[in-house]
Amino acid sequence: MSQKKDKTEKKKKPEDYKNLYTRALADYQNLQKETAKEKEEFARYVKSNMIMEFIPIYENLKIAVEHSEYDNQWLKGVEYVIKQFEDMLANNGVQIISPVGEDFNPTEHEAVEKVETEDKKQVDKIVKVIKQGYKMGDKVIQPAKVIVYSLKK
Questions:
Q1: pLDDT by residue (tens digit) across 54-112?
Q2: What's the pLDDT tens digit per position in 8-49?
Q3: How many CB atoms lie within 10 A of CB 51?
Q4: Largest pairwise CA distance in the chain
């Protein structure tokens, strides 16, 4: 009877090794997928940090053009640089949040001031954008600073 047990165990062993191999292979493939996903997330994080360094330069150029009283070639050159920044941001998946007239959304907007209104339809609508916000995919990398309507007391 013990010989029958030995033969049965010997028959099971190759199958057990196959199961172990299959599990190990599945674990390895899952690890590869997880590692690839982590690398992708890290690359997105680095990219968003780099873009955040460019945004103040872009915004300052826009402010300089808005406050310029001149209409010359230099100003047109600066406007061209601003357009290049906008293209670079768009090509890297960055969306500008400029929500005038939209409903206030605390995940994308930061209310810096409230303006009273008697019109109930206007409550929580954005009156003015003080500073644009930026989104990369679904992630807000800088919320828009806005002025919002509130109900007059």
A1: 888 888 888 888 877 777 877 888 888 899 988 988 998 899 998 888 889 999 999 99
A2: 555 667 788 888 889 999 999 999 999 999 998 888 888 888
A3: 19
A4: 103
- How big, in percent rounded to 5, are the helix, strand and coil portions of the chain? 55, 25, 20
Within this chain, do residues 124 and 88 fall inside the same structural domain, yes or no? no
State yes or no: pLDDT of 153 exceeds 90: no
CB within 8 Å of 153: residues ≥ 6 apart: 116
SS (H, E, C) 37-48: HHHHHHHHHHHH
Structure tokens at 54: 């460019």
- Is 48 found in the same domain as 104? no
**Is residue 58 domain-shared with residue 132, that is, in the same domain?**
no
Rounded CA-CA distance 87/82 in Å is 9
Question: Residue 1 pLDDT more than 70?
Answer: no
Q: What is the CATH number of the domain that holds 130?
A: 2.30.22.10
Provide the residue range defining the domain that includes 53.
1-92
Comparing CA positions, the residue from 5, 122, 135 lying closest to residue 147 is 122
> Which residues partner with 146 through β-bridges?
111, 129
Question: How many domains does the chain contain in total?
Answer: 2
